[in-house]
Amino acid sequence: MISFKILKKSKESNARIGFLETSHGVVETPCLVPVATQAVVKTLTSEEASETRSQILISNTFHLHLKPGEKVLEKSGGIHKFMNWKRPIMTDSGGFQVFSLGFGRDFGIGKVLKSSINNNPQAGGKKVIQEGDQPQKIKITQDGVYFQSPIDGSKLFLGPKESIKIQEKIGADIIFSFDECTPPLASYEYTKKSLIKTHNWAKSCLDIKKTNQALFGIVQGGRHKDLRHESAKFISALPFDGFGIGGEFGKEGNKMSEMIEWVVDELPEKKPRHLLGIGYLKDIEMAIKSGIDLFDCTVPTHYARRGIAFTSEGKLDLKQINFLKKREPLDKECVCNVCLVYKKDYVSHLLRAGELTAFKLLTFHNLYYFNNFVENIRTKIKKGEI
RNA sequence: GGGCAGUUGGCUGAGCAGCAAAGGCAUCAGACUGUAAAUCUGACGGGUUCUACCCUUCGCAGGUGCAAGUCCUGCACUGCCCA
Q1: In angstroms, rounded to a whole number, what is the distance separating the alpha carbons of residues A295 and A31?
Q2: Residue A304: nearest nucleotide (C-alpha to C1')
Q3: Rounded-to-integer distance, Cα A151 and Cα A84, Å
Q4: CA A27, CA A271: separation in Å to the nearest integer?
Q5: Which of A21, A151, A236, A316 has its CA 20 to 30 Å from the CA of residue A306?
Q6: CA–C1' span, A351 to B15, in Å?
């Protein structure tokens, strides 16, 4: 079980400072949840991940089920022992893979859409996903989803029951209910139908769960105000320990914060709110101001493996040849273990030489930078500045 | 001194009569938000009225051909072998 205490509520915004207690320790919120899909923060050992001042990680049900299989984790004594991470862990349910391996793959899109939504591919727009449409590789049914493994193409089925059973064996502190992350190209009707499915699955997840792990329900509803309200009301009426907010949030740069507030307004104040899969630094600050306590995102770790360092000067692409001449830390203001010792010229060299340590150094720095960024926001909330 | 092989855009390396010239690397630009991702996309001789056209390129100088990076002659340089 978990307990969540709100220590301070901002007068300037919806932001709040909280303490999330789990049997593996406390998480001070608002908090970034680094992504450890395969029971690893890619390129880092768990000790290193801890040194980035990460408080809690999120792993993935779908991927751990495929490899190595939840039985391996169960036999090792659960995910904490398996990966030697002593702090809290959450697992995502596999609901995101319904999108990412389905329509996301078919249309080459992410959950935050860039191009305008229209029905005319000739005009540069993407096709709208209509009610009854199915992705090419997977099949979404009322009971769950038939997947094709991205590893070997083998077939597997994941529904609320399967997801919860797997998550119980994985043994994270916080688990998520199985949902469909609705694609941004979905029509209103598709999103509404999908929402009903996600709601039914939410009830099933609560019915099935036997452990004392905390279970978070997930609010969907896409970019539609009425559906977001409906979903938030429905999910928050169920005895979840916290709430995830998933799916799309409209076009980039648009009104993500407004959409979050539609949901947050309906959620019980005293339970933690987790924004799934967001975000960039500017999104993080916005989300926190909108009342979000936890948020996971692949950006700091993923961009690290693209050679990108997040710094007080903005994003730096260390692959660029000019960094070979820079004998200075990634970020002059950063005091992470990497910035204290290594310089841009070296990191750039490692990237250009294809050396894996480059990714480790950048992953470490980016996570530290993001965690520090969030800590600064917490400080500002405490001071009443945000 | 003689014989053979070679000289292609920043590098590498195809092409052996219809080419601004395959691949790869490098470079530059773009993408990436609950990780199918150490990935993907685009540009990469120059110019313009840029789904098209023009100009300049394949060691150098000539020649043959409607047409030459591609064939011929000479020269220069490089590598290997023989003296």
Answers
A1: 7
A2: B38
A3: 25
A4: 14
A5: A151
A6: 34
